[in-house]
Sequence to fold (268 residues):
Amino acid sequence: MTDLSIWLLGPFQVELFGEPVTSFSSDKVRALLAYLAAEADRPHRRDKLAGLLWSNSPQQTARTNLRRALADLRKAIGDHQADPPYLLITRQTIQFNGRSGAWIDTAVFTQLTAVKIMNETVQRLEDAIALYRGCFMEGFFLNDSLPFGEWALLQRERYQRQALALLHSLATHYEERGAYERALNYAWQQVELDPFQEPAQWQLIRLLAFTGQRVAALSQYESFKQLLAKELNVKPEVKTSHLRQQIQEKLLMTHIISSGLVENLHPR
Fold:
């Protein structure tokens, strides 16, 4: 277990020696830690950080607020006692120390997903998607800091794209190997993450049919069709509509055979 653990994918969460850190004095202190942890690859000038979090304040006031927030942050995460320290601090810059041994979920997620999917890497990619508990800093907002909000939005979009691509790859991997139930699990996660992704919906509908859930597949198609009509005023693509027709025809034929009506289709 690492001394300091930081979760940014989903609700913001920090643990120190396995215990939740609840002593942050404000959301600005939390935001400062989140930014430094997510952007740990380089040092950040104090003026930039002050402008990021206190964009509506005069420069000198913003720098004073940053200095106080930094002191509160160091106290909350035990930076003074850490060896090596979690933060690298100079008069001009602040950087999260990537060699401190702290665990950051975004860093691990990025590292795990930096491989192509193959049999020997599937477990690694499944470990990565398990880290994606939700969108970046889910439910966290600073009403008086537009620059931080814009940065957080970019992070949310970035990690969501990575998660969607990873889920699609895992679903495709298991589908190609006939492991339809496992593929279906990842297809559902795709659609729950972004219901407007038509390739994900198409994959989900197909996998529902492959697992014998044809009625559910048709219901999913209708739900998707209604969603597109209501929110975007468009129809599903021809490919998706054709898939729905194929499933419907197979369902009808199954019903005919099971009902003993097949003889009526082939009169003697």
Summary: The CA atoms of residues 129 and 166 lie 7 Å apart.
